[in-house]
Design a protein that fits this description.
- This protein is an alpha/beta fold and about 250 residues long.
- The protein has one domain (about 1-245): Vaccinia Virus protein VP39 (Rossmann fold, 3-Layer(aba) Sandwich).
- About 30% of the residues lie in helices and about 20% in strands.
- It contains 6 helices and 8 strands.
- The protein has helices at about 1-25, 30-40, 75-85, 125-135, 155-165, 175-180; strands spanning about 45-50, 65-70, 90-95, 110-115, 135-145, 185-195, 195-205, 245.
- Helix 1 packs across helix 3 (about 75-85).
- It is globular and about 45 Å long.
Length: about 250
């Protein structure tokens, strides 16, 4: 079943590889560039970048870092390879499925994602694998879009997701809650546009057991709700305008 899932995911993103730069680089990359540069400015130690795609984010990486970028799509990686080679630092790219990382436990100091977990078929499973390869206390730093708890955005995103996921990402993921369900300590969430686009900082706990996650972890495809059952400190919503800054309890 996992092999079938991986094959379908690989085929979907191989197909998208030829148009991704055109669809992303003209507008979206310029709009989100300041937020990505701010997120990536914290890069330190041995770094894993999950779903490097065609490498559009490499332009925002600070120089001189040790980075391994992975992606499930060989066609995406074919486009990313020249950008990785031109990076002013040590960067390699590898074909790999985030659900089945081939790295040893506790390999990386930091893991970064950029609009990644809208597309991972089993996000909690993928996040658990990330936790496994992070050193205890290692950081997960994410730039992600999620669902919304606010009308009419939640209605639109929920209606569009079944159509869009056939050739692109889900639009209504509960990513902050999924991070907590995978066993991470969520430290900080910054809303970059409404409660939909956000940056997330989470830390791998000192425990060595990635299975020590919330018993609700398998509930990964629920829509943004903000109702009972939210993980404390990981509310996906924004109570105010763009750039709201939330800090989880104990962060």
């Amino acid at each position: 079943m996992d092999d079938v899932r991986a094959a379908r995911t690989r085929a979907k993103w191989d197909k998208a590889a030829s148009t991704l730069d055109f669809l992303s680089s003209r507008g979206a990359e310029r709009r989100w560039a300041p937020y990505k540069e701010d997120l990536f400015s914290a890069m330190d130690g041995r770094i894993l970048f999950v779903a490097v795609g065609t490498g559009l984010d490499i332009q925002f990486f600070p120089p001189g870092k040790d980075i391994c970028g992975i992606d499930i799509s060989p066609r995406m990686l074919g486009r990313a390879a020249p950008r990785a080679a031109a990076y002013d630092g040590d960067m390699a790219v590898k074909e790999m499925d985030v659900h089945a990382l081939t790295f040893d436990d506790h390999t990386f100091d930091q893991v970064y994602t950029s609009c990644t977990f809208c597309s991972v078929p089993d996000p909690v499973d993928g996040l658990r694998e990330i936790r496994r390869v992070l050193k205890p206390g290692g950081q997960l730093r994410m730039f992600e879009h999620t669902g919304s708890r606010y009308f009419p955005f939640n209605l639109v995103l929920n209606m569009m997701t079944p159509l869009v996921r056939r050739f692109g990402p889900d639009l209504n993921r509960t990513t902050v809650r999924n991070v907590a369900r995978a066993g991470f300590d969520v430290v900080e969430v910054q809303h970059r546009y409404l409660d939909v686009v956000k940056t997330i900082l989470a830390v791998a706990p000192l425990s060595d057991d990635p299975a020590e996650a919330s018993p609700e972890a398998e509930d990964t495809n629920d829509v943004e709700a903000g109702a009972s059952g939210d993980v404390p400190g990981t509310d996906e919503s924004a109570d105010g305008p763009e750039d709201q800054h939330d800090v989880a309890p104990g962060g």
